[in-house]
Amino acid sequence: MALQILLGVLGGLGLFLYGMNLMAEGLQKVAGSKLKRIIELLTKNTLTGIIVGAFVTAVVQSSSATTVMVVGFVNAGIMNLTQAVGLIMGANIGTTITAQLVAFKLEDIAPIVVGLGMMLYLFSNKPKTKQVAEVLIGFGILFIGMGYLSKAVKPLREVQAFKDLLVSFGHNPILGILMGFALTVMVQSSSASMGILLALASQGLVPLTSALPILYGQNIGTCVTALISSIGANKNAKRAALIHLIFNIIGTVLFATILVIPIRTLVVSLSPNDVVRQIANTHTLFNFINVIIQFPFAALLVKAVMLILPEEEGEKDINKVTKYLDDRILQTPSIALENGIRECLRMGKLARNSLESAMDGFFNKSEEKVKETFEKERIVNELEKAIINYMIKLSNTAMSHRNREMINGLFHTVNDIERVGDHADNIAELALVAIEKDLPFSEEAIQDLKKMYTKVLDTYKYSLECMKTGNIDLAFNVIKMEEQVDIMEKTCRTNHIYRLNTSSCNAESGVIFLDLISNMERIADHASNIARAVIDASKYE
C-alpha cells in the first residue's frame, strides 16, 4: 500500500506542477506587454512595488520565482533594496492565488476545461487565442493533479499512526513549522507543498490546529530558493534574499503566538465545516496581514540586513561587463527581453562613445583618445558575446510569438552595433597612422569630414533612440538620413578627386580620407539596419 500511495502522490504532484507551470507560461504570454512595463514601475515607491510583486507572482504562479527574479534585479543594479522590499512583500500576496484556486475543489469540471482549452488550441490560428488555451489547459491539469493527489492520500485515513503524527503538530507547533519548512524545501515550491497540505486536509487527515504551523513553515521554506539563488551574486542580492527570509520569520512568529487564536477563530467562522477553505483563507490572511504590519517598517528591514551583512569598503558589483543581464530574470521572459534591450542600448551607447573618441582623436591628433577607442571596442566585443549568450538562453524559454520575433531582430541589432564598434576601431587606427606620420589634411577635407561625421553621428544616435522608444516615424527618418549620408559620401569622393587633380591634397592623406568616409558610410548603413529592425518589430504589435 505504501508504494501505491507514494506513486499516486508523485503522479498527482507531477500533474499539479505541470499544470501550474503550463498555466503560468500561458499567463506570461498573455500578460507579456504588461510585464514589460514593470521596469518603469520598479522605479517608484515601496507601495507600487507591492502591487507589482503581487501581479507578477499571480502571473508566474510562484513567489519563489518572483523573489529569485528580484535577487536578479538587485544583482544587476536595476533596483535598490528599498524597492526590493516592496516586490518581496507583494510576491507573498500574489502566491495566495494558487491556494485559493485549489480550495475551490474544481476537479469535476477540470476535464471540461482541458477539453475546451485543447479545442481552442487546435482550431484557432490566432496567437492570443492559443495563449488563452494554454492557460485553460494548465488550469484544468492542475485540478486533475489535485484530484489524483487527494485520492492518493485517502488510504492514509486508515493509518492511525500517521493521523496521530499530524495531530501532534497541533500540540507542538515548532515541529509543525519544521515539517512545513522541510516539505517546501524538498519540492522547491510553496504552491506544491500547499497542494499536498490541502489534499491531506480534504481527506480529514489534518485538523486546522495542525495545519496552521505547517502552513507557516511553508512560508519560511519558500525563502530557500531565493537564498540558494543569491549564492555567487553580489552582497546586495544576498541582502534581498535575506529580507525575504526575515519578513516571513517575523510573520510566522506573530501568527504562531499573538495572532494564533484570533486568526483561527476568524477562518472557522468564515467556513465552519470546510477545513480546506479554512487553510486557504489562513494562508491569504497570513500574507496580507503580514504585509500590512511590516509595510511601515520596510526601511527598518533594510537596516536590519545591512547590519547582518554590512557594507564593506571597496564593495563592488560582480558584473564587470553587463549591467542589466542576470539569468535569474529569465524566469520571466518578457522582463528578461526588456533587460536584454536595455543592455543592447547600453552597448550601442558605448559604441557611439567609441566613435566619438576615434573622430576626436583624428581631429585633435590625440593618441589618448585613440587608445580610449581601443578599450571601448574591447568592451563592446565582450558585451556582444554576453548579450548573444543571454538571448540564446532567453529564446529557449516560453514566450509569445511577438517577443520571439523581437529576439530574432535583437540578434541582428547586436551584430550591427558590434560592427559600428569595429568601424570606430578602424577609424581610430587610421587616426593613429595620421598622427604618427603627421599627415597633412586640407581645410576643405577637414570640413567635408566634419559635416559627414555630424550627419553619421546623428543618424546613429537617432537609430538608438527609435530602438529605445519604438518610434516608427523616427525609424523612417533614420533611413532617410542614411540615404543623405550616401549622397554626402559620393560628394566627398568627388571633392577629394578634385583636390587630387589640383594638387591641394597629399596622396597618402587622401588614402586615409577615403577610408574614413567609407567607414562612416558603413556606420550609417548599420544605423539604418537598426531602424529597419524597429519597423519590422512594430508589425507584431
TrEMBL record:
Gene Ontology CC: plasma membrane
Cross-referenced SUPFAM superfamilies: PhoU-like (SSF109755)
GO molecular function: sodium:phosphate symporter activity
Keywords: Cell membrane, Membrane, Transmembrane, Transmembrane helix
Transmembrane segments: 6-24, 45-62, 68-90, 102-123, 135-153, 174-201, 213-233, 245-265, 285-309
Gene Ontology biological process: sodium-dependent phosphate transport
All copies of domain PhoU, residue ranges: 345-430, 449-534
Any single Pfam family the record assigns to this protein: PhoU
Cellular compartment(s): Cell membrane
InterPro entries: Na/Pi_transpt, NaPi_cotrn-rel/YqeW-like, PhoU-like_sf, PhoU_dom
Membrane topology: Multi-pass membrane protein
NCBIfam families linked: Na_Pi_symport, NaPi_cotrn_rel
The name this protein goes by in its record: Na/Pi-cotransporter II-related protein
